[in-house]
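Problem 12. The chain below contains 188 residues. Write out its predicted structure in C-alpha cell notation.
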Amino acid sequence: MTAKILIVTGDAAESLEVLYPYQRLREEGYDVHIAAPTRKKLQFVVHDFEPGFDTYTEKPGYTWPADLAFADVDPGQYAALVIPGGRAPEYLRNDPELRKILKSFFDADKPVAQICHGPLLTAAIDSLRGRRVTAYPALELDMQAAGATFQDAEAVVDGTLVSSRAWPDHSSWMREFLTVLRAKAPVT
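Solution.
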C-alpha cells in the first residue's frame, strides 16, 4: 500500500509552497492529499519581492481543490504531514480541528515538513519548544517565543521535523524531507 502524505493549507497559502511539495512527493510515489477548513477550490497567492519594498508583495496565484476538510481527516491514515506557508497559517492556527490533526502527527513522531509561515501552526500546538527550526526570517522572534532555537538556513532537520525558510529553498527542504520520509515511511 502506498504511503499517504497530508498537506494542510487554506486560502492565501503561497502557491509554490503547496504545489511544489504536492508534485514532488507524488513524483516520488506517495499518495498526497490536500486538506483545508472545507472541501472547496482554494485560492493560493504568489509572494515575491519588488525593488523598493521593505517586505514581499502578494498577488493572486493558482487555484486548487482541497481533497477533504480538516474535520474529515483521519491522521492515522497518513505517514507524514506538510505545512506550507503564505498567509494561511495566520488564521489556520485558530482552527481546533487542524490543531488536533497537527498534535496527532507530533504525538506519533511522524515526519513533518514546514516552510515559511507554516511554523506558526506548530507553534500554536506548542510543538516547537526545545527544537531547532527555521522559518521565514521575519518569524525569528516568533520561533524563539515558541521555545525554538531559530537557525537562518535553507533547511533545518530536528528529528522528524524538517523546516525551511521559503520557496527559494525548496530543493534543500524536499531533499532533507525525503531523506526522513524514506527512513520512516518508504514508498512500497
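Discussion. The longest strand covers residues 57-65. Students who got a different answer should revisit the alignment rule from Section 12.3.
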